[in-house]
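Project channel, design review

CF: Before we commit to the Desulfoprunum benzoelyticum constructs, I'd like one complete example in the thread so the newer folks can see what an input/output pair looks like. Taking PLD phosphodiesterase domain-containing protein.
RD: sounds good, go ahead.
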Amino acid sequence: MLNPNSRSLYTSALTPPPGMIFDEAIATTFSMDPALLLEAPVYLALMAADGQTDPDPLSVLEAIRRYSKRITVYVQRGRIEVPQIAKPNPLFGFLEEMVIEVTAPGGGVFHPKIWAIRFASPDQSSAMYRLVVLTRNMTTDQSWDLSLQLEGTITGRKSRSNKPLAHFFKLLPDLTTRPTESSRVEQALRFADELHRVEWELPDGFDELTFYLPGTKGFDWEPPIAKRMAVISPFCSDEVLQRLAKQSKSADALISRPESLSALKKETLDLFTQSLHLDEAAETEDGEEDDSAAQPHATGLHAKVYLFETRHYSDYTHVVMGSANATNAALKASKNFEILVGLVGRKNKVGGIDELLGADGLGEYLVNFDMTSETENDAVRQKAEESVERARSRISKGALSIECSPGAKDGLWALLLTGEIPSLEGIVRASAWPITVTRDFAVNITKNDAPGGIRLGEFSTSSVTGLTAFELRTNHPDVTARFVLNLPILGIPEERNAAILQTVISNQDGFLRYLLLLLGDDKVSGLDPGNGSGFAKWLARLADGEDIPLLEELTRTYSRHPERLAEISGLVRDLSQGGQHSIIPEDFLDLWTVFESAIGGRDA
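CF: and here is what came back for PLD phosphodiesterase domain-containing protein:
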């Protein structure tokens, strides 16, 4: 039921079922690593490339270009992580449209961790959904977590049990912190409608499936009256645990982090037969923080699951898991925006609390919490952490934006951070820089003396972005926060995307290879999970110096997929900007003029 030796990666969830292809996806998360998000479209494009571990840069570029409009990630504002890069990476600029910052309607945090992935048949005649409910964020931490993967087909009838799930996706556009593209709004509403009508295949042994939105009227979660109960939650509040314990005749186990257990009242711990935490040998570092305060010594537990054993003619096990910690913000005051999913099955089929705590479950990784030990309270550090989180919140709520204008040198663009920088008590230095470049370009934003805004510097066209990194430093040497805001940007140069292209397609060989990616159908380009050998053959022919029959390929595309020639036209136009004509072979330009004339004639 909870196997600590089994890990689920985001990318594996994107792998299409047999006979289907990826169509589009929506993900939600509290925090996010932009580098991890870049991996998703690349994985989609290269998953069938015969175990290729070092993707061709052009394949990466084409994957991001193709899928960036079909993947949307909703993330808590102020919780995008600063990517760890050793050199500038202009590809991060493509994430601006994919990432949408949101806030919780109740004044808490946006905390759900879920993927809804739509797959379709190649001819688009049928579609299905994969739903992945997670307990961890879209980051690279290796915390112990729990995930549930469901698959189902779209039917013609709405399912009552899916109503909370549909409501969840319908609400997403209302939580955004700034206006969202109409296509992203339409996507969320389309997902809400179709997910309402999905018939899910339940995991083996389970008979019931229910979705909950804690604190949302009509969709709230009420724990069942149970014989036995166990709670796994990295963060806890006395009030919530006491309420849960009262719902059960026996509160068998509370599994949390040592610092969370130390903060609980003795009378709360006494309600549970066992108070446990992961053995230090099984712990890893995690990036998420408590709902109310920073937890600097975060250990590896990140799973959030509530287990109940009930009796109604037979013994049943209830598994309730998702994003909600056993905290006031998540389950009592319900200020956070959370999602939970509940499964019910006969105990003799799915196991129960004893199996969870046994040798085949988490038992060998758990140790008893020593209530006599006291966690050292570093008041200076705690004060610094409170200061940095308060400053993060103030900057995130500010009306900041980026203004872009031509720089002093030809080919460079000046970025100006506009809007009022709030007072940042306890912060000794605050810095900012575009995430497309390294931290070496960071500028101090605590000294806001310049009229009109703060000059972030002058950057190449390909590095222009609204994704802005912030760093907050305190007097405490170990307390620093880094985060990214997706700020609105004014005056972005029209040739920005073309410049990003030119950083990857830097010569004629690169142009020809990228051209073949655009010309080839999904099988040729390696985007079809059923056959990844086509593009590899093209690359082999190019490597051998063989002439590629461009006329044949252009003619085939003109006949079968004329819309793709519009992409070629855009590519030629983009790569011709900035005096880069040498990238495009003259022979191809002569050939292309014929097809441009044909395209014009067809459109007429």
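RD: helpful, thanks. The longest helix spans residues 379-397.
CF: The longest strand covers residues 21-29.
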